């Protein structure tokens, strides 16, 4: 019997919404084609909350990015593009299931930055200029946290 990874590697050709729903284990997925990108959006139950976007080239062969709110990353470290795509889906799945929680901070000028944690209680280090911190979980309302400077 093939493992999930082996089955996925074989089936990455001809990506469509149904396959992406299966890979993400999330039903509300939409595909939009715009400006040289094909982007799959995993949408939360409340459309005012941030979605997860996975961008591909127009042939749906090369993953361009995974994004969540203002955060995004690129997967391009492997020569075998299928491995990059697998890593992108794994990242998105971890955000969906809550294994990754985004701590998004901004300075007084509104410039965003962020990092992932496993628990909202583990905010970690912030920029010294941070004035706002928002904890983002997929399919949940953003939660603003107070920033306390402790010396």
Question: Keywords for this structure?
Answer:
alpha+beta, 3 helices, five-stranded antiparallel β-sheet, 151 residues, 2 domains, single chain, elongated
Query: Which shape, going by the Cα principal axes?
Result: elongated
* Total strands: 9
SS-based structural class?
Answer: alpha+beta
How do the strands line up in the largest sheet?
A: 1-2-3-4-5
Amino- and carboxy-terminal Cα gap: 56 Å
Low-confidence parts lasting 5 or more residues at pLDDT below 50?
none
List the helices and strands and how they pair.
Elements: H1 4-11, H2 17-24, E1 29-34, E2 37-42, E3 52-56, E4 63-68, E5 71-73, H3 81-97, E6 101-107, E7 112-117, E8 130-136, E9 143-145
Antiparallel strand pairs: 1-2, 2-3, 3-4, 4-5, 6-7, 6-8, 8-9
Could you characterize what this model shows?
By secondary structure, this protein is α+β, with helices and mostly antiparallel strands. It has 2 domains: 4-97, no CATH class; 101-145, no CATH class. The protein contains 3 helices and 9 strands. The strands form 2 sheets. Strands 1-2-3-4-5 form a 5-stranded antiparallel β-sheet, covered by helices on one side. Strands 7-6-8-9 form a 4-stranded antiparallel β-sheet, with no helix packed on it. The radius of gyration is 17 Å and the shape is elongated. The protein starts with a helix and ends in a 6-residue tail after the last strand. The mean pLDDT is 86.
Question: What does this entry show, briefly?
Answer:
The chain has about 150 residues and is an alpha+beta fold.
